[in-house]
Design brief:
89 residues; mainly alpha
Length: 89
């Protein structure tokens, strides 16, 4: 597993949690992207990496599909949102 080279951005709240849950569930990034594509989301590895790195916005469709793949409620992707806003004032 690669170690994140860049610091997390501040363009979305969910990226860090998505990355954590994906890794906890044993998905490699490329396999996770393939599952997203099966759901009809046309996403490339660079775009997905930026989502996890909080460098770009996450769409509502992406959040929905990701929660389905990870088998979690969408709210769980927003875990620690208060901390995000406290650190990004």
């Amino acid at each position: 597993m690669k170690i994140r080279k860049k610091e997390y951005g501040n363009c979305n709240i969910v990226g860090k949690n998505i990355e954590r849950l994906r890794i906890e569930q044993g998905y490699k990034q490329k396999d996770f992207i393939s599952k997203m594509q099966i759901y009809g989301l046309d996403i490339n590895p660079t775009s997905y990496s930026k989502l996890e790195g909080q460098i770009r916005l996450a769409s509502d469709k992406e959040i929905y599909v990701i929660s389905q793949i990870l088998n979690v409620k969408m709210e769980e992707l927003f875990y620690d949102a208060d901390e995000f806003f406290k650190n990004n004032k």
